Amino acid sequence: MSGGVDSAVAAARARDAGHDVTGVHLALSRNPQTYRTGARGCCTLEDSRDARRAADVIGIPFYVWDMAEQFHEDVVDDFVAEYAAGRTPNPCLRCNEKIKFAAVLDRAVALGFDAVVTGHHARLGADGLLRRSVDLPKDQSYVLAVLTRAQLGRAVFPLGDSTKAQVREEAAARGLAVADKPDSHDICFIADGDTRGFLADRLGESPGDIVDGRTGAVLGRHGGAYAYTVGQRKGLDLRVPAPDGRPRYVLSITPTTNTVTVGPREDLAVDTVTAERPIWHGETTPVECEVQLRAHGEVARAVVTTDGDGLTARLRTPARGVAAGQAIVAYRPDPGGDIVLGSATITAGRMASPVAAHGA
């Protein structure tokens, strides 16, 4: 129970379904005062109190589990290391993978519980496969697609068939004080929302060149390549304007040379995406499907092939702003809700020949 409206209603629905429910709030900060207060994040002291009050109203036992050290190692340290390596991580995905459905689930099973219930907006079909929520703008299947079949077998998502508006209405009817609590957003462990400053404090200043991707000319300087991500347009502070006056975008980040490469928007286009560490639930590949390349991003048609520890997606239409470190999630359209076929961590995007990119 995070202290928000979704997990509170999920707990209440699980109790109403006849399950023996215990509410658990995760203490994830070594120093809770350093995590943001109010509604901009999660894991705050306020959230803990809100979760406890919700459990009291629902009528279930409530505990706080201290997982600060593991969260710091598996999520925060990973976040910093990924940026240092020139990638753009998704900490919410990593938290689901390493904390909520690994550490928490393992402890819950050891204590005799059958499953972990969360307030994620996603659905599980009778076949055990993950599906999108009916509320597509709130769908969270993208950050859950990293879960294995074994983890999904012990997961319960009671909110997948409801919209966020319906969840809030139900919370109010149940007398839950969090009914109108704003959704959390941004990164919970960055207290002031300044990701660049957070990384600079941990990685230090590391000046380098910003170069033109076509000519190799030095266009400016940066204080640390970790402050940039592929597709970024603002905050480049370039000394040399483009000859045609058009904006430039970050095309790539090279930690070995501490170089940020920029260019026009069309140079961001890729039609082949490679990824590593796939979690695959679908049929034998290659398979024609839809892929999502970032959280809340649009889907694209693609032919996906898995091969051992790798995954390759050949996009029917080129995509822009594909960043290493993000997840690629494959979906199969289905009348009962898009089915998650699998997920992998993006390693690179490139333009291939038309035959290679569009052959099934």
TrEMBL record:
The keyword Iron-sulfur does not apply. ATP binds at L26, G119. It holds the Pfam family tRNA_Me_trans_M. The record marks H120, Q326 as: Interaction with tRNA. SUPFAM superfamilies: Adenine nucleotide alpha hydrolases-like. It catalyses: S-sulfanyl-L-cysteinyl-[protein] + uridine(34) in tRNA + AH2 + ATP = 2-thiouridine(34) in tRNA + L-cysteinyl-[protein] + A + AMP + diphosphate + H(+). Residues 197-263 form the tRNA-specific 2-thiouridylase MnmA-like central domain. This is tRNA-specific 2-thiouridylase MnmA. It comes from Pseudosporangium ferrugineum.
